[in-house]
Design a protein that fits this description.
This protein is of the alpha+beta class. It has 14 helices and 7 strands. The chain has a 7-stranded antiparallel beta sheet with strand order 1-3-2-7-6-5-4. A hairpin with a 3-residue loop joins strand 6 and strand 7. Belongs to the CorA metal ion transporter (MIT) (TC 1.A.35.5) family. One of its GO terms (molecular function) is magnesium ion transmembrane transporter activity. It is found in: Membrane. Keywords: Coiled coil, Ion transport, Magnesium, Membrane, Transmembrane, Transmembrane helix, Transport. It is a multi-pass membrane protein.
Length: 393
């Protein structure tokens, strides 16, 4: 028995954005007019609504860890970009967890940008297909895209802006921490930089996944062609004649340049030739933006590596200073040992003939021992300087 679906207007829910027990199964449906409806349904109802397989819907499950993915299916686009988990059709957008703090701005942006008010009227006669009609199309062709492309653009712009904002926040925290670490090496500063480096590594992986997904789409024209839902829908409804083609066929800058001056049916023929230039330009724009974010993280990583190298050099310098101090202490110990040897010899109770009447011998022994200690210490210092263990004065 099918589960009942309750439709609740968004306006009645915006006032209270508290998370409820059903938030994990909450969706918001936004149509081409920008109207939103909250759907508290299970996954089976969603599968029946958009005709999607369970394996594709599983990608949007927040309990499962799936990488960033953009999948083109027969009638839908499955979008999993960080917190943006959406299903895009040719007529509506289903967005998961609409009450999430990161998703609320995306819902507002979709409602603002999905309506397309400057569509060309469908009921124009054949005589309007000449110069006057083409001039009107040239005026608004830059802003007219199929519904699924407008929804995809909002999602890509939101995720690129979100990741770029996280990168700027990380830069704001990391650069001062690194400067403080270079000025004073302490356990507190080292632990702080360690945490920031771990956060940077996680953020880099997230940005890299989004970049790889866009790059994979750009490298495969067939995958990009699968994202043209309106084209496939129009081809299924009217495969021969051009009467069922949507207005954006004629308004697209890529498509409009290929339309024949004598027949509208040739426009559909052009569309069936896997022309993906329009989508390619859209994806390339956000690919460059996500690439710029990744370059910022790469620069930050290089700065951290340079700081680590500088700290290692400082630690090596401190170790050399400790070696120098140890060498000096060892040299002093050797000199004191010579004096101790002299004192031990003179302190023994052994009768010597040179002790009687030869008091001047004590002075000579002490002077000879001092010269020997000084020469020994000088030789050690010269050897250490030759080996580079002690810097020149």
């Amino acid at each position: 028995m099918a589960r009942e679906v309750y439709l609740v207007p968004v306006e009645t829910q915006v006032a209270s954005l508290k998370k409820k027990t059903a938030v994990t199964t909450s969706w918001i449906s936004i149509d081409a007019k920008g109207q939103g409806v909250i759907l508290d349904v299970d996954k089976y109802a969603v599968m029946r609504r958009v005709q999607i397989h369970a394996r594709d819907l599983r990608i949007l499950d927040p309990m499962l860890s799936y990488p960033s993915t953009i999948l083109g299916r027969e009638k839908v686009i499955v979008l999993n970009l960080e917190h943006i988990k959406a299903i895009i059709t040719a007529e509506e957008v289903l967005l998961r967890d609409p009450f999430d703090d990161n998703v609320i701005p995306i819902v507002a942006e979709l409602k603002r940008r999905l309506p397309q008010d400057n569509l060309t009227c469908q009921g124009q006669g054949e005589e309007e297909e000449h110069l006057g009609l083409r001039n009107d199309m040239d005026i608004g062709e830059e802003n007219e895209f199929p519904f699924e492309f407008r929804a995809l653009e909002v999602a890509l712009e939101a995720i690129c802006s979100f990741l770029d904002a996280r990168t700027r926040e990380l830069e704001t925290d990391t650069y001062p921490a690194l400067d403080e670490l270079t000025s004073k090496i302490s356990s507190r500063n080292l632990d702080r930089v360690r945490k920031l480096k771990s956060a940077m590594t996680r953020l880099t992986n997230r940005v890299q996944k989004v970049r790889d997904e866009l790059e994979q789409l750009l490298d495969d024209d067939d995958d990009m062609a699968d994202l043209y839902l309106s084209r496939k829908l129009a081809g299924a409804s009217s495969p021969v004649s051009g009467s069922g083609a949507p207005n954006w066929y004629l308004a697209s800058p890529t498509i409009g340049s290929k339309i024949s001056r004598t027949s509208r049916a040739s426009a559909v023929t052009v569309q069936e030739d896997n022309d993906v230039e329009e989508l390619e330009m859209l994806l390339e724009a956000y690919f460059m933006q996500i690439e710029s974010t990744l370059n910022k993280l790469t620069t930050l990583r290089e700065y951290i590596d340079d700081t680590e190298d500088y700290i290692n050099i400082q630690l090596d310098n401190h170790r050399n200073q400790l070696i120098q101090l140890e060498l000096l202490l060892s040299s002093g110990t050797v000199c004191l040992s010579i004096y101790s040897l002299v004192a031990a010899i003179f302190g023994m109770n052994i009768p010597y003939t040179w002790k009687e009447g030869h008091g001047y011998m004590f002075k000579w022994v002490v002077m000879f021992a001092g010269i020997l200690c000084a020469s020994t210490f000088t030789s050690i210092i010269s050897y250490a300087r030759h080996k580079g263990l002690v810097g020149a004065a």
